């Protein structure tokens, strides 16, 4: 490079300018290629559902709602849900109504949630009867619905494309109780009684098939009406055949009635395993010492510990639940919270709020929350990853008694006489 009296030569000057331009262009590209900082979306992500605040399903329905509300607080307290395609965090808003435990109300409310409220995604109502109704509406409009608080196998046999389950299928709910009976008794006999609804039918049919497969004698298989106020005729019939175990039930109110009337009639099977009510703290409040020794399947208990991949630990969930609601959670509460985490994981994986993409994202998700593992069958949306435990009321406490490798107490067998 030659430097004359007046500075750079023309050729050199052109070279310098070219270098400056190239450096500037590279710098501009680097600046433009840097991702911008995420922002908070101007509108919330609205999760819509109905819930049984009143009516037959109100006790577990309210517990489920408490879990969903706590999840909303949890995710919003951490900035919301990140949607990659928009580079935004969405705060969560819940839009829900009391369905009064009525199918007619569910139809009206899910039409309203989709067409008037314009919610982004749906959660199901509590109970298989109501969730099956809502699933038809979500399918009609192509809207994703996370099914929580419902697990009738019938829901997932309709060919619906937009549903995702969170509970172990109903047909498996009493199989562990049958395993317990077989461990303690040779050639046992059972009576299976169940409520006339989709959930209880799935459980009863699954239990009957499993019992017969295992060589257990099913001496009674009886269904009672949804609005039954007196179960003594069926119980008297069962008393006459003298079975080793009574399995079944339906929901909270009728199961409490079943225990009270069995006690009044002096029916003392070695095993009594019910479906829903023993998992609720209200069960002990209603029955006190009559609850002793009664078994029930549970989707979650606070004593269980998992190697989680998303969300709070069981202890963190338990303490925050008690702080907010002043009571202990049931598995319905835990499932409500976990359903929110499951939805959150799908949104973050899909990077969008488009329902078709979200449903596809669930196919590849395999996560572990404090509630346990969650993974679906891609073809049906039914839950295949989550596993049940068997609980038993012992001296006013719920204890996990099966499987034995996670048990918190040895099972009381036979059930103490009333």
Radius of gyration: 28 Å
Query: Helix fraction?
Result: 40-55%
Distance between the termini: 107 Å
- Uncertain regions: pLDDT < 50 for 5+ in a row? 1-8, 16-33
Q: Which structural class matches the secondary elements?
A: alpha/beta
Largest sheet: 5 strands, parallel
pLDDT average, as an integer?
92
**Cross-sheet strand order for the largest sheet:** 7-4-8-9-10
How many individual helices?
Answer: 12
Shape: globular
Name the beta content range: 15-25%
Query: What's the total number of strands?
Result: 19
Can you offer a commentary on this structure?
The protein has 418 residues and is an alpha/beta fold. It contains twelve helices and 19 strands. The chain has a five-stranded parallel beta sheet, sandwiched between helices. The N and C termini lie far apart (107 Å).
């Amino acid at each position: 490079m030659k430097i004359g009296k007046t500075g750079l030569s023309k050729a050199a000057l052109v070279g310098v300018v070219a270098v400056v331009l190239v450096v500037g262009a590279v710098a501009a590209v680097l600046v433009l290629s840097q991702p911008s900082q995420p922002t908070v979306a101007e509108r919330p992500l609205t999760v819509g559902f109905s819930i049984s605040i009143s009516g037959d399903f109100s006790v577990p329905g309210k517990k489920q709602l408490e879990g969903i509300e706590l999840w909303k607080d949890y995710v919003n307290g951490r900035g919301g849900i990140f949607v990659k395609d928009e580079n935004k965090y969405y705060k969560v808003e819940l839009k829900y109504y009391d369905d009064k435990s009525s199918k007619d109300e569910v139809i009206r409310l899910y039409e309203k949630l989709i067409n008037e409220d314009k919610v982004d995604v749906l959660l199901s109502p509590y109970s298989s009867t109501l969730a099956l109704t809502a699933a038809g509406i979500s399918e009609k409009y192509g809207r994703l619905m996370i099914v929580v608080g419902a697990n009738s196998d019938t829901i997932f046999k309709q060919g619906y494309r937009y549903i995702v389950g969170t509970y172990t299928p109903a047909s498996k709910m009493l199989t562990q109780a049958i395993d317990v009976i077989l461990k303690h008794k040779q050639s046992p006999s059972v009576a299976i009684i169940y409520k006339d609804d989709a959930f209880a039918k799935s459980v009863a049919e699954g239990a009957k098939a499993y019992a017969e497969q295992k060589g257990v004698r099913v001496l009674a298989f009886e269904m009672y009406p949804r609005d039954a106020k007196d179960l003594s005729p069926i119980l008297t019939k069962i008393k006459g055949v003298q079975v080793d175990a009574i399995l079944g039930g339906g929901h909270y109110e009728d199961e409490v009635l079943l225990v009270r009337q069995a006690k009044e009639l002096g029916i003392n099977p070695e095993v009594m395993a019910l479906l829903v009510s023993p998992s609720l703290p209200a069960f002990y409040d209603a029955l006190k010492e009559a609850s002793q020794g009664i078994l029930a399947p549970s989707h979650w208990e606070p004593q269980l510990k998992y190697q989680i991949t998303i969300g709070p630990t069981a202890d963190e969930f338990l303490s925050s639940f008690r702080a907010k609601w002043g009571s202990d959670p049931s598995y319905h509460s835990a499932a409500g919270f976990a359903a929110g985490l499951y939805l959150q994981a799908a949104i973050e994986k899909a990077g969008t709020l488009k329902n078709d993409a979200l449903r596809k994202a669930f196919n590849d998700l395999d996560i572990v929350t404090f509630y346990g593992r969650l993974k679906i069958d891609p073809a049906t949306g039914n839950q295949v990853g989550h596993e049940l435990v068997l609980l038993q009321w012992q001296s006013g406490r719920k204890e996990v008694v099966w499987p034995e490798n996670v048990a918190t107490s040895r099972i009381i067998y036979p059930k103490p006489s009333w």
